Amino acid sequence: MKRFAVIGLGNFGFYAAKALFEDGNEVVAIDSDRSRVQAIDTFSSEAIVIDATNRESLKALGLEHMDGVIVSTGTRISISILICLYLNEIGVKQTLVKALDDDHAKILRRVGATQIIHPERDSAVRVSRSLSRPNILDFIPLAEEYDLAQVESPRAFINKTLQELDLRAKHNVHIIAIKERSPENFMLVPPADFTIKADDILILLGKTDDIKRIKALKQ
User: Fold this and answer.
1) For residues 161 and 121, what is the distance between their CA atoms, to the nearest angstrom?
2) pLDDT in tens, 62-120
3) Which of 51, 62, 214, 218 is buried deepest, with most CB atoms within 10 A?
4) CA-to-CA distance for 161 and 169, rounded, in angstroms?
5) Alpha helices (H) along the chain
6) C-alpha–C-alpha distance, residues 29 and 40, integer Å
7) Do 177 and 143 fall within a single domain?
């Protein structure tokens, strides 16, 4: 199980927190608006009302131990910049921040953002590419209970071949591809004698609950 925090619970922040929580992660949801915090309460591990521009309040939450922090604070650019700066000073390793435009994104990177989110632009690109570059995965008739997911190699899988793991029989999931980080490579339909490495990313296809069980294995 991974741990995430979401700061700012407008539409983007709310659905980001909800999706992370429903995917089996521990999620701390943060906003200064009590009604927004109450709305996310059932879709988070902990929902907190605080002013995220208060450095000491942020520091007290232990966010540096999170796997990632998402910042989505609306149209007030100065707030997201200040929060991003504080998260960087606190020692948060992965900070994903929603930017309003390119200049905002440049400033966010300067103060420590590790990933910039452009929701409308990113969605537009995905939709356009699905039209101009159709992918066979777009046409797989996945039922609601099935999912296609990227999973970091669980510790129990490392140094074992796909044949030894036999994920289809033991976990009811299929490995359809593997992303290798060193050397960087993408392997579609890896062979049975492929040996899993610690930094490999597995692309799994299967029922959502079965994939969640794989994700729950110790990394």
Assistant:
1) 40
2) 999 999 999 999 888 999 999 999 999 999 999 999 999 999 999 999 999 999 999 88
3) 214
4) 14
5) 11-22, 34-40, 55-59, 77-90, 102-110, 119-132, 162-165, 167-170, 208-216
6) 7
7) yes
